[in-house]
Amino acid sequence: MDLYYADGNRKIGPIGKAELQALIKTQKVNAKTLIWQAGMTDWVELGNFVRSRSSGGAKVKPSDPLARQSVCSECGKRFAEDEMIRFMDSWVCASCKPIFVQKIKEGVSVAAAMEYAGFWLRFGALFIDGIIMWFISMLIFMPMGFITAAFTDQTAVMVITPLITTLFQLAIPAAYDIWFVGKYAATPGKMACKIKIVTADGGRVSYARACGRHFAKWISWMILLIGYIMAAFDDQKRTLHDRICETRVIRN
Ligand SMILES: [Zn+2]
Question: What total number of domains does the chain contain?
């Protein structure tokens, strides 16, 4: 995959897919940047790159059994390559092309518009949420402690209280996290740090995704917080649970 792009009068390349994505992210290139690839007659804008690919290349009859086939990256069905368009290393069929082109255009502008929240900002948000959660827990567990202390001789209380305590310890953070993220795209800690959770394309996070993300956090916890630390080394500042749930944390 050898692509060239124009930077003023200079032709820069060859670059691969990963390099192009990095350039899009750092806003070195955008939908208007001119792109050229071996075999192309002229330079085209990155946003129109996909369209131009379909007009080039030798025509092979669709019925030709020797025609090379590829799988459409959108719908997963097989087609002859001459009926498809190619973008980087993805093949897309004719019927999926409009959606694909739209996605790329949005992807280019969305990636340029999103400013990913860094590790320490997210750490600050977690810290604030931690304090709030501790306060809520105290309000619930303190009275429970007094009740338990008053009935220590009763086996039922000795068994039931730890069970209820554990249940609350799981339920309070879950309810807090899922409700706030589903409704406001951010917990109070994140709101205070002016950051929010969005989907990979910058869209709203549903309650279902917020729920999945909450439980995916458990995995990040269980591997000694490595899932969280990953954000410090990721180009899009993703934690493990962001990767699992296809979410990003961005500045408001
Ligand atoms: Zn398709």
Answer: 2
Residue 91 CA to ligand 1 centre (angstroms): 9
Ligand 1 centre and the CA of 243: distance in Å?
25
- Per DSSP, the three-state class of 80 is strand
Question: For the segment 122-175, what is each residue's pLDDT rounded down to a tens digit?
Answer: 999 999 999 999 999 889 888 877 877 777 667 667 777 788 888 888 999 999
DSSP label at 116? Answer: B
Residue 103: which domain range?
A: 3-113
Cα of 105 from ligand 1 centre, angstroms: 18
Shared domain for 159 and 236, answered yes or no, is yes
Cβ-contact 195, 249 below 8 angstroms: yes
Question: Assign residue 85 a region: left if phi > 0, alpha if psi is -120 to 50, beta otherwise?
Answer: beta
Asked whether the beta carbons of 68 and 81 are under 8 A apart, the reply is: yes
CA of 35 to the centre of ligand 1 (A): 24
**Are 153 and 62 contained in the same domain?**
no
Looking at the fold, whether 132 and 88 belong to one and the same domain comes out as no
User: Measured in angstroms, how far is the CA atom of residue 107 from the centroid of ligand 1?
Assistant: 19
Would you say residue 9 has pLDDT above 50? yes
Which of 86, 113, 140 marks a domain boundary? Answer: 113
Task: For residues 109 and 125, state if they share a domain.
Answer: no
